[in-house]
Design goal:
Length: 567
């Protein structure tokens, strides 16, 4: 640090001046030299210098400068405060150091808060934030609320909802007020494996003091997302429960409507139908199945765009190519396909957190070369090939009920069709009708309940890949009946028009694509001579493609899905 003296010549201040000066003041305090105030606490006498205390404590500054009785006194008594904490705070005023421990923090924080020593309050809050665990987070929240530590209150709440599965079994949970519990369960960032954990926690809290708490059930059940419970849970546990029946009949109607009438789900806009969004989730791409040479794959791998790396994950129970893949958080679903000898009716789901595949209810029709997409948390299986003919039929799977239902058929039979959802409308693009490669597309709007023709693509495409980005459909590659394509076209749903964008680097058919972190990724497929492991990424703002890390396995007739997973 330098300055300019009166002579114009630079002079340098001693870098350690303040440290040395305060060290000297601390020594003077220890020898009671020039001390002009004595703090009395619980019989303890603490000598100090008014200016030093006032410099770090607005409380003392006001006491010594405003016309109060204490301003002219040489001895001031503090009541209702821990003496050891005051000694530490006075020493902190001289040394700028303090030791916070589990033993002293509960006395030190209130004292620092009362005396308005903000730096020590901050240190105490940081210490307590580092001590948060399921057994104490609610207690720390209450303690920090008492002393006005707003940031620590929010940190403790955040910790409680992120560890709710453990917190809801602690003693502190059962002594929450109804409003405090509501404040937790209404949060969208709550981390639970299923909504049933929230439902069970609320009932447990009520049953802890049923007589006094049952009147709070209606207020609390408003924030339990009953429509997302399994049908079995609704029928066997929720509906028969008198507390729910007497305090949330309209919520039961909503939940049953959501589950029993899936075609009406688009009408229900309640937050209770939206899955919670815990923190730490990032978008991951899963490459599933496919084939190469004479092999059909059951293997799967995942791609992390932040690290640009692929990792092998659990294999499916049934190997398959020409499959359909879609996701409904927190699961990836695969349906149909071809196992090398027959077209499949089997459906599996993948739990990324457990890295496990499980069979779910099979489709009503065998399908390979199908389109599979999710809309309103329902899975639509569209078209395909049943081993004998091209299909125009469509069926819908509800993960909540584990049931498939028939929905209106497309206007055109389509094999090697791909589907995507844009603005809550399901689009089926191109394909092969048994005679011709198709440029036509059609759209299914659940609000209308039928398929409608839309403007055809600029190019015939079967075995193309389709995804949605920024309110537009993108159709990539495929086969036009004479050649494998690298061209890409974009459909603007607002003006219902197609236009060409930059072509892919590599010609591809039977590939798949997904949108991930605002970019389009195309993976695998066949270039006319071999199956591909290469992956390309399209940046729409630059209108250009670039190669990224290739998959570990060559995969034609592949399926891709995006899923939000924990880091």
């Amino acid at each position: 640090m330098s300055s300019t003296g009166l002579s114009g010549l630079p002079c340098r201040a001693a870098d350690q001046h303040f440290r040395k000066a305060f060290a000297r003041l601390a020594e003077m305090r220890q020898r009671v030299e020039l001390c002009d105030i004595t703090i009395l606490v619980d019989g303890e006498e603490i000598p100090a210098h008014r200016a030093v205390l006032a410099s770090c404590s607005p409380y003392f500054h006001a006491m010594f400068t405003i016309s109060m009785a204490e301003s002219g006194q040489e001895r001031v008594e503090l009541k209702g405060i821990d003496s050891e904490s005051v000694i530490q705070l006075v020493e902190f005023a001289y040394t700028a150091t303090i030791e916070v421990t589990e033993k002293n923090v509960q006395q030190l924080l209130p004292a620092a808060s009362l005396l308005q020593v903000a730096d020590v309050v901050q240190v105490c809050c940081e210490f307590l934030a580092g001590q948060l665990e399921p057994s104490n987070c609610l207690g720390i929240k209450s303690f920090s609320e008492t002393h006005g530590c707003i940031n620590l209150v929010e940190e403790a709440k955040r910790y409680a909802v992120h560890h709710f599965s453990d917190v809801c079994h602690t003693d502190d949970f059962y002594i929450l007020t109804a409003d405090e519990l509501k404040e937790l369960i209404c949060r969208d960032d709550m981390c639970v494996s299923t909504e049933k954990e929230v439902y069970d926690a609320v009932l447990d809290w009520i049953s802890h003091d049923t007589e006094n708490r049952k009147s709070e059930a209606a207020k609390l059940m408003e924030h339990v997302r009953l429509p997302l419970l399994s049908r079995q849970c609704l029928v066997n546990e929720v509906i028969p429960n008198p507390i729910v029946k007497d305090n949330g009949s309209h919520l039961l109607v909503e939940a049953l409507t959501y589950q029993l009438m899936p075609e009406e789900r688009w009408k229900i806009t309640s937050t209770r139908t939206c899955p919670r969004r815990p923190p730490g989730l990032s978008e991951v791409m899963f490459a599933v199945g496919g084939g190469s040479l004479f092999a059909i794959h059951g293997t799967c791998e995942s791609f992390n765009p932040s690290s640009n790396t692929w990792s092998i994950v659990a294999s499916m129970n049934t190997r398959r190519a020409r499959l359909g893949v879609a996701s409904v958080d927190p699961l990836v679903f695969v349906a149909g396909g071809w196992d090398g000898s027959s077209d499949l009716i089997l459906v599996e789901s993948y739990n990324a957190q457990q890295n496990v595949w499980s069979y779910v209810h099979p489709m009503g029709t065998r399908r390979s070369c199908l389109g599979l997409s999710s809309l309103h948390r329902l899975i639509y299986a569209v078209g395909g090939f049943d081993g004998a003919s091209c299909l125009n039929s469509t069926e819908c799977y509800d993960p909540l009920t584990n049931q498939w239902t028939v929905v209106p058929a497309m206007n055109v039979r389509r094999r090697y069709v791909r589907t995507s959802v844009c603005d809550n409308v399901l689009y089926a693009c191109g394909g092969f009708d048994g005679t011709c490669h198709l440029a036509s597309i059609e759209a299914f709007d659940p609000r209308v309940g039928k398929w409608m023709h839309k403007p055809s693509m600029l190019t015939r495409r079967s075995s193309c890949a389709v995804t949605t980005l920024n309110g537009c459909l993108y159709a990539t590659g495929g086969h036009d009946g004479s050649a494998i394509l690298n061209t890409v076209e974009r459909y603007d749903t607002r003006n219902e028009s197609w236009s060409l964008v930059a072509p892919m680097i590599i010609r591809r058919s039977t590939q798949d694509c997904v949108t991930l972190d605002g970019n389009i990724y195309v993976a695998g497929g066949n270039d006319g001579s071999s199956s591909l492991s290469s992956v390309e990424m399209y940046k729409s703002q630059l209108n250009e493609w670039m190669l990224v890390t290739a998959m570990n396995v060559r995969r034609s007739s592949i399926g891709l899905a995006m899923l939000k997973c924990f880091n």
